[in-house]
Amino acid sequence: MSTSDATTPQRGRPTVLDRAAITTATFRLWAERGYAAVGWKDIAEATGISVRTLVRHFARKSDIAWVGVPAATRRLRGALDEMPADVPAADAVRRAIVASISDDPMSPAGPDWIRVVCSEPEISGTAPAAYRPWITELAGFLERRVAGISPTAATALASGYQAATFAALVGWSESGSHEHAADAADEALGWLSLSPTGSDRETAES
Fold first, then answer.
1. For this protein, what is any one GO molecular function term (predicted)?
2. Distance of alpha carbon 89 from alpha carbon 83, whole angstroms
């Protein structure tokens, strides 16, 4: 995850929040005390940001868990936009998803993040809404690159890719593997195909 400005404990209201720093501090508290035991006051004390400011920027405590998803979506979009037109759609999607994965342990690919998300129903229950922009981005690419695919099918496939990627990351986290999270996702996604009949139906975007 990347940020533009750092926020340090200070008096008064900060004009820009360092959302990544807030996430890191909050995940540290969740890991030490458990999600349910950490309230807004605890997060405020750990970050130096008032409860009022925190709740103005995060409607729910669980929203803090998804701070890294917009950045991952931007990386996905950039990788898809730069993908050569002659790359088969399935390969293009796999490469772009792999490129969107960060090694930051508090990002939506790190083992600490995965453990908390998987163990807390309040967080996992908000996943569909959090990942909707990512899925929409990928679905748009599939509509442009796969011949004959409907918007409904493109969205379904994009949702499937998101689920498959997350499952691969969960398996990677639980295995204790020393390989990068992106490598685990790359290996898993390599088994997926976009051809419903086994023939090449894709068309490159002109």
1. transcription cis-regulatory region binding
2. 10
